[in-house]
Amino acid sequence: MKIREAHRNDYTISTDKDKLDILNIHKFLANETDWANGIPINTLKTSIENSLNFGLYYENKQIGFARIISDYSTIAYLGDVYVLKEYRGKGLSKWLINEIMEHPNLQGLRRWILLTDTAEWLYKKFGFTEIPNPEFYMEKHNPNVYNATDKTNANNV
């Protein structure tokens, strides 16, 4: 897939995996989030390798991230979205989501999925809504998968 970049003053959004600062992404996701708390770095690397990634940079420093899991024809899952605290309030998260939603390989999809308990206001600006029929939604969820004492964690290699 062709690498895409967008620029705004000293900020850049890029889909180039080689630019990603894996250690800093890991530090944030593993320590600053509820959804990926304690994620092993090898699990993160595998998730990045198998996703369409969007790095957000100030000059050359990575300050944000998001990734898409998709078949590029019918469905996309938006996850691991963040902007570092000191860069919030500048419209960067809105710009990041806009760049994701406008990516040419993500057009014409039947469904987008997002799980969030923060920044609903942001995602609503891009057409995300609450599930109209939550009784149809099913999941298999293991919130302790990254816990080192969880014996079912096959990702901790």
From TrEMBL:
Gene3D superfamilies: 3.40.630.30. It holds the Pfam family Acetyltransf_7. Signal peptide: none annotated. Residues 1-143 form the N-acetyltransferase domain. The keyword Transferase applies. InterPro entries: Acetyltransferase_Butenolide, Acyl_CoA_acyltransferase, GNAT_dom. Keywords: Transferase. GO terms for molecular function: acyltransferase activity, transferring groups other than amino-acyl groups. The keyword DNA-binding does not apply. PROSITE patterns: GNAT. PANTHER family: FAMILY N-ACETYLTRANSFERASE, PUTATIVE (AFU_ORTHOLOGUE AFUA_6G03350)-RELATED. This is GNAT family N-acetyltransferase. It comes from Spongiivirga citrea.
